[in-house]
Amino acid sequence: MIELDAATVLLQWATGGLLFLWFTTRKHEISAGYGWLLRGTFCVLAAGAAAAGIATDFVPVRDVAAMGVAVVAIATVRRKNVTFDLLGPAIGAIGLIAAAVHATDGAGNISTNLLRVAVGTVFLGAISDAMLLGHWYLVQPGMPRSILNELVDALRWILPIEIVVMLIPTGMISVLTGAVDDGWNGTLGWFWVACAVTTAVLIEVTRAALKERSYSAVMAATGLLYLAILTAFGTDLVARAVLA
Q: Is the CB of residue 125 less than 8 Å from the CB of residue 116?
């Protein structure tokens, strides 16, 4: 059965996004406006996570944690000490642990579910922030390109881990062999494979684009990341929906 908890996904997105906000601003090479933009964006996502949880399947620890992430994100909008950006992910992590345990509900492997939620959080945060960071070069064209390179390199390491945790039994191999019914005669399993492969290709092409010296290379990389965010979400969300 295909099932995906919107509250958990939104909390993952907000938590991972705030984590990589810290990662990209820790060297103080980006203007304050970038931090304001991302904190505001992920505040809205965290608030959405809390609202979705309360409206559908209330999980106290998860949904209160989502509220906490939203409050912390908006409270730190104008703070110059980027270390405070780690507070939101720390609170979000507590909520996501509760969400993973709740989703298992006595069936399946809790450790596998925790691993998938944790890796998915980092994965979604990294790809989202990479795309947003690429756009910020329009606002701050003199920003060192190494910041985006670091984030794309991190994404390059995270993707294989994301794929592996989705293959752990019972995983996507069972969907491809038909042992787990995806409701579409295996189509979603192959769609997941296509998303994973395409994401890997887009990341590599993005890295190649960033080696070019011209400013237009950054814009080309951003366009590629636009596509990558779509396939990356497919890599994570399709697998979790089918395996739920």
A: no
pLDDT of amino acid 32: 87
Find the mean pLDDT for residues 59-70. 96
Beta carbons of 172 and 189 less than 8 angstroms apart: yes
CA distances 40 to 10, 14, 17, Å, are: 14, 10, 11
- Using alpha carbons only, how large is the chain's radius of gyration in Å? 18
Are the beta carbons of 221 and 154 closer than 8 angstroms?
A: no
Q: What is the pLDDT of residues 121-134, one digit of tens each?
A: 999 999 999 999 99
What backbone phi and psi angles, to 5 degrees, belong to 154? -65, -40
Structure tokens of 206?
């993005």
Q: Which of 99, 132, 105 is nearest to 9 (CA)?
A: 99
Asked whether 128 and 19 are in contact (CB, 8 A), the reply is no
Q: How many Cβ atoms are within 10 Å of 69's Cβ, its own excluded?
A: 30
Say which DSSP state 183 is in: S
Which residue stretches of the chain are H helix? 6-25, 32-55, 60-75, 87-104, 110-139, 146-167, 172-177, 187-209, 216-233, 239-243
Using one digit for the tens of pLDDT, what is the confidence trace for 99-127? 999 887 655 688 888 999 999 999 999 99
Q: Are 73 and 53 in contact (CB under 8 A)?
A: no
